Amino acid sequence: MIPVIVRLEVRNQNQKGMVLFLPVILAWIFVFALLIAVLPFVLVVALVTIGQGLGKRLLLFYPFFFATVLALSGLRIDVKSSANGKVFISFD
Amino acid sequence: MGEETKKILEMLHQGKITVEEAENLLAAISSENPSREGSTKNAGARKYLRVQVESEKEGTRVNVRIPLKLIRAGLKLAAFLPNGAQSQVNHALQQKGIDLSKLTPADLEELVANIDDLSVDVEGNADVEGKQKVRIYSE
Fold first, then answer.
1. Mean pLDDT, chain B, integer
2. A75 neighbourhood in chain B, CB within 8 Å
3. Contact at 8 Å (CB) between B47 and B67?
4. Residue B1 C-alpha, separation from nearest chain A C-alpha, in angstroms
5. Structural domain includes residue A1
């Protein structure tokens, strides 16, 4: 499932800080719209450069990029330090 | 007859392995714990690679959970890196004593496919840079 919200938590050593819930779904909508908008140009460039191998790469970029975005869900990074505080990033 | 036995017999039939090798493989299967099948099923259900680092120095704790799907997708996406960038990355890694230039995408795929059984525990030298503990496993 595509990550909808990114939770970003930053705290200092005194446990003071902030928790942000970023609606990353909005960014995906923008990115996907952009990718679809440039698709005709990508197809033209891919057809022109298919002999050099670049065309195939360009065409395969779309499915691989979507697969990577879909797989982001569940990624969690948690860094705690008694000296510097805490950073927590979660893709849900 | 188990699936592994069938595969071994098929490989023998196709001439991929010798009779002696097949015998060894069958012996290895039969000597394994009966609970192994259950653990393999659990391994297939594993979804995340967990990296935990604990350092006494500054009391740092790092806990990263990476979906295995993301690793697979990232490996495929990494193939889109321009050759120049890839060689620069390899060069930078070689300066740190890591040589990944001989590692092919097929090798990486195999590594990720078998990551289910991975469990690495590393304990650092306390005298040099404070006690450090690194644990990598799948869950």
1. 74
2. 65-67, 70
3. yes
4. 37
5. no
